[in-house]
Amino acid sequence: MWDIPTRPSSWLKVSRLDPVRILDEYEGPKLFTVAADDGQELLVYQCAEDAERSRFLLVPSDEGLISDLEANRIALRDALTRAGWSWIVDRTRDGNLTQPASMNTRDLPPKALPSAGVKLSLADDVLLRIRMVGRQLSGHRIPASVVKRTLDAATGAIRALSAHALEVGQTTGRPSDDFRKYYDLPAVEFGFRSFEIAFAQPDISSSLLEETPALDRVRELLSKGLSWAAASESEAVTSSPEWKAIIEALTKLTPPMKGVVETVEVSGILAGRKVRPVRLTRVASERVAVARKSFVPDERTRAYEGIIRELDKDKRRFILRDNKATDLCTVSFTEEQFDDVSLAFESDRLVSIVIYETVQPHELISVTLRGSDMKEDVGPSA
């Protein structure tokens, strides 16, 4: 741990280093913002660490500086040194903080700062970046379901939009290699605490991909859908193939109504190169679910009670049976409904389900655990 000339700060008080916005992380936040005790916004950078303590550089910040960092308009070193002065705080292994000490940034050793010219995002050509955010997510313990959900979100969303852009018919067979290249993207960056994967451009060497400006169309559709989903006011969508593809993509990207993932942040070229990631909350999930219902032809719902006895995790289908082992219905469900269906299957409990009856297999709307024992008579209800 290096030493440089400092002097105690007589007015800046920082009692906690609780991140307000995390800009970069690796096994914990490395570049983030905090609020001082008086509310002043500070940009914080972990600049050193040893066995006893972690050292943080604190610099004055504002909305403009954060926007410039997120948009890669300013290098990290320039953002940390532009004021000419800053503060240092040490956090010991027991979590205690030293009082901020002011210093001249010119006195910092070179190893304490990022290399010259390095910006927040190392990959300006990131096609899509998906970040799963939740208060229970830890950098050292990311559930496999969250990793899978992040991959499925990117793959499923791009596949739905690419199919529309390329006018590829929906089939149950193996997709062509040309079409697969659109959504089977190479992962180029990973982030932890909240879990994040960044995807690069696909291999577009084939003639089909070279001749079709499909990714431009995907970007147009995804940007349109994200703006609609994240808007403060809900607007009705038109009944069109375009919006059907958009809603299908958003179904993959929005967070589940319960679980450790509370918010999904979407950014990258396909999101429209916005200054900040688009934040999809559970309000967006509800909005997408309502819109999705409008694309079910001749909408008709029906309720059943029974027990889930057979579950096909690969095809995401289950069979609901009554207490006489009679099949009541075969039901498909979405990735977002998997946890609820799996819990009902593993617990052998009576469930109430609501389905769309006009599609085959029937499409699950909701599933609710009812009790620990089967009733005498279970089956369809009005």
User: What is the succession of H and E elements?
Assistant: EEEEEHHEEEHHEEHHHEEHEEEHEEE
Low-confidence residue ranges: 170-175, 206-212, 372-382
Average of pLDDT: 81
Helical residue percent band: 25-40%
Portion in beta strands: 25-35%
Shape: elongated
How would a textbook summarize the main sheet? 7 strands, antiparallel
Q: Give the neighbour order of strands across the main sheet.
A: 1-7-6-5-4-3-2
Structural class: alpha+beta
Give the beta-strand count. 18
Instruction: State the separation between the terminal residues, measured CA to CA.
Output: 71 Å
Please count the helical segments: 9
User: Roughly how many Å is the radius of gyration?
Assistant: 25 Å
Please give the domain count. 3
Keywords for this entry:
single chain; 382 residues; alpha+beta; OB fold (Dihydrolipoamide Acetyltransferase, E2P); seven-stranded antiparallel β-sheet; five-stranded antiparallel β-sheet; 9 helices; elongated
Give the secondary structure arrangement, pairings included.
Layout: E1 7-8, E2 21-25, E3 29-35, E4 41-49, E5 53-60, H1 63-70, H2 76-81, E6 85-92, E7 101-104, E8 128-133, H3 144-166, H4 177-183, E9 187-191, E10 195-199, H5 207-211, H6 214-230, H7 241-253, E11 263-267, E12 278-280, H8 282-293, E13 301-312, E14 317-321, E15 327-332, H9 338-347, E16 350-356, E17 362-371, E18 380-381
Parallel strand pairs: 15-17
Antiparallel strand pairs: 1-7, 2-3, 3-4, 4-5, 5-6, 6-7, 8-10, 8-11, 9-10, 11-12, 13-14, 13-16, 13-18, 14-15, 16-17
